[in-house]
Amino acid sequence: GTVVTWGCASFGQRNGAPKPTVAGFVAIACGDRHSVALRTNGTVVTWGCASFGQRNDVPTGAGFVAIACGSRHSVALRANGTVVTWGCASFGQRNGAPKPTVAGFVAIACGDRH
Fold first, then answer.
1. What percent helix, strand, coil does the chain show, rounded to 5?
2. Tell me: the pLDDT tens digits for 48-91?
């Protein structure tokens, strides 16, 4: 599928969004001021605000099967069952997250600050 964005952009929510002519997306997740998309090839794309690290340390490479966004942080699940987190950690959103070597996860979800 393709990505189309609309709405408020005062915090950069639409900055860097994929162009509607670019296809190959299977999932989208939205945070407070940023968004994450999963491509058919298993790679992750982000856009929007980065003032709280939402676009810092975004995982690279393929092999992702699911994504989720909290208010200012994001999570991605790899096909091998490992979890990757990035973004804000000021409320402990990333503290205690599974280490990249811990596998066996089958689903992910985020809340506002957890």
1. 0, 30, 70
2. 888 888 887 888 999 999 999 999 999 999 999 999 999 888 88
Output the pTM of the full model. Answer: 0.88
**Phi/psi of residue 42, each to 5°?**
85, 10
Of 64, 110, 105, 109, the C-alpha closest to 89 is 110
Measure CA 43 to chain center: 10
What is the side-by-side order of every strand in the sheet holding 83-87? Answer: 64-69, 73-78, 83-87
For residue range 79-114, what is the model confidence (pLDDT) as tens digits? 999 999 998 888 877 766 777 677 899 999 998 888
Residue (of 4, 2, 60, 9) closest to 34 by Cα position: 9
Residue 7 tokens read as 């709405």
